[in-house]
Amino acid sequence: MAGTLRTTRYSRMRLATTQRVSDENGNTVTFWGREEAREVPAAVDDDWYEVEKEGERLYDISAKHYGTPLLDWVIAVANDLELPDEEVVPGVRLRIPGSSTIQRLTR
Q1: CA atoms of 63 and 49, how far apart (whole Å)
Q2: Which of 2, 76, 91, 103 could form a disulfide with 84 if both were Cys (CB 3.0 to 4.6 A apart)?
């Protein structure tokens, strides 16, 4: 099997990497891995969000709170979630890092 390593947009926080491997028949399989992630410490301007509906994903929540889905990795790291694009179960409370944290992480 020949493989190529591709880093996702989440690699800014070194949260997740994928490895795509093709077999001799041309079938491609993607493997997810987790690397050492930075911590997102709690801050006074953090917010809490309770997931309301089934099928909601972190990028939906990021778009709702930050105006962009591209900060979903911050929510993933803050809540120690494995896969950033995984559906979140209704009823779960997530810590949404505040603007001071976002500014510090995205410099």
Answers
A1: 13
A2: 76
Lookup: tokens for 25: 């028949």
DSSP character string of 27-45 = -EEEEEEE---------TT
- What pTM was computed for the model? 0.65
Euclidean distance between CA atoms 12 and 74, whole angstroms: 10
pLDDT in tens, 92-104: 999 999 999 988 8
When computed from its CA atoms, the radius of gyration of the chain, rounded to whole angstroms, is: 16
**Calpha distance 105→8 (Å, rounded):** 17
Interatomic CA distance for residues 90 and 63, integer angstroms? 18
Number of domains in the chain: 1
* Token couple for 84: 């950033």
